[in-house]
Amino acid sequence: MLLFLYYSMSTSTHTSVPRQIYPLARLNPYQGNWTIKVRVTSKGHMRHYNNTRGEGCVFSVELTDDDGTQIQAIMFNAAARKFFELFDMGKVYYISGGYLKRANKQYNRVDNDYEMTLNENSQVEEAVNEPIIIPTLTFSFVPIDQLGPYVQQKELIDVIGVVQHVSSTMSIRRKADNESVPKRDITIADDTMKSMIVSLWGPLATGIGSKLLDMFDASPIVAIKSLRVSDFGGLTLSTITKTIIEINPNSHESQKLKTWYASEGSVATFESVGSTFRPGHTNDAPSMYSDRVGLEYITNNPSLGESTPVYYTTRACMSFIKDDQAMYYRTCKTCNKKLTVNVGSAYSFLICRKTQTDPNFRYVVSAKFSDASGEAWMSLFADEAETIIGCSAADLDIMKSKPDGSAYQTQLKKAKWVPHVFRVMVALRAYNNDRRQRITVKIVSLVDYAGESKYLLNEISSTQS
Amino acid sequence: MDTSSPAVLVNGDLLRGYVGQRVRTVIQVVRPEANGLTGRSTDEKQIVVKGQMPAPLTTFVEVIGVADSAQSIHAEIVTNFGDSFDTSNFNQLCQLANGEYRHLFI
Questions:
Q1: What letter would DSSP give residue B1?
Q2: If you measure CA to CA, which chain B residue comes closest to A454?
Q3: B23, pLDDT greater than 90
Q4: Mean pLDDT of A160-174
Q5: Beta-carbon separation of B89 and A454 below 8 A
Q6: What is the pLDDT of residue A279?
Q7: What is the pLDDT of residues B92-103, one digit of tens each?
């Protein structure tokens, strides 16, 4: 009888071999065989791409183990197709045979030095006896009027608001791989009396986005988790693959908004944050310290001023000026239009057909400027050029026409390496088939050293905190 | 450039830490004395300077010399710094130059 029991015990079914479960914190690329037991705490949607290596699809999941450590797991192509239906939010899985490498922090916001890739040979098995716990979404909403500090930061934010407008779907061609991606813009407003455009990308545009279009006249409330804040077009909120949108959630904040909207929000007018929040866009009454950047910031960002020109202040010195450029052009004294050079010493022109021997001179200068961060070519006209060069265009012409060009050279030399504060306009100009960055000086001021020192001291202390 | 005996940027408070050493500071002239002057540092402390003064004196002077005590400097070089000077900027500079960025100065 004992033998019989023993026999039956040894053949009792174990569907799974007892595994050694590794904590996520111990995983590294040099670890050999491991098995982890993790819950899917976030699942992105499938993204299709088309690059130089061909077509493909990719999705990622965020995995959390018992200790609370998290790691992102990515799957491409065959592996993506194999595991997409298998992974469900809130379920627990045994996973082995994945490949670890250093996390690409540009695309991976999960707090782990490593990220995992699963291929077709990886093993993913659902742990059937584990309870399914879908993590309740915790939001920390940023009011629309406080989005400013988050621009271009890595931190993803959450927002909640009443839908004011839903656009139709647009098809945007992704520059990286020429793929067309659907996009829909929704406008949301909150009780800060500001409104904001949120761009929904991919399945969010076509799925939940079209749902919002259908119900938009009921002024639904949307709570959106994990949005990226960028400075494209001033200030934009964009969804990413792991963004989650909830319509009319049952939360306290949602109720508060609903009440506010019913009482006053529905008849209010909202100030759009996206179009008015432009850190460099206003050119009226700037202070010498507003929108301060180094020259390198401008030259390193070739897409600045893509849609409309942007304005910055910068402190720099002129470092190089070509003495053989045409620094000025002649204009008619009466109508101020450009002259064309004529025979002898008389000038005539296109527009008002007068002939003059004594035209006005207007500066058009292109020079290189330098500061501690780098250097940039900038254009100066009229009064600004006169301030930098130190004399009027007419006087410079007199110096240049002298047989002994030393006065001309000296004037240009004296103009170099004198620090000034500039208000510049950055825009993109078409050159042949390209669009090139062009920096134009709009205002020149002398350096107020006490003020500059205060500004620098402020900058130093803000980096220290 | 002779870097054999660098002068530490100090204000009134920091002076006591460098007695016997070469220091430099900017002070506001309170009262010229027979053999120097009495001044007020950028952090409102009294500093006595002994040595040869430029004539005439402007409101602010820079003093480079050896610290005699926690409140006096034996001046080697005194330079007129004009009648307007931002004392709070200079004071913050002294703190930075003696704090975490001192390796950039001495």
A1: -
A2: B89
A3: yes
A4: 85
A5: yes
A6: 41
A7: 999 999 988 888
Contact B89 A450 (CB under 8 A): yes
Structure tokens at A156: 């993803």
Comparing CA positions, the residue from A243, A164, A179 lying closest to residue A208 is: A243
Tokens representing residue A327 in the block: 């620094």
Cβ-nearest to B86 among A450, A460, A464 = A450
Write out pLDDT tens, residues A251-300.
888 888 988 888 877 777 777 775 444 443 333 445 677 788 999 999 99
Residues of B with CB under 8 A from a CB of A: 86, 88-89, 92-93, 96, 100
**pLDDT value, residue A348:** 54
Do the beta carbons of residue A442 and residue A427 sit within 8 Å?
A: no
Max CA pair span of chain B: 39
Positive/negative CA dihedral, A321, A325, A330, A331: negative
Which one has a higher pLDDT value, A249 or A16?
A249
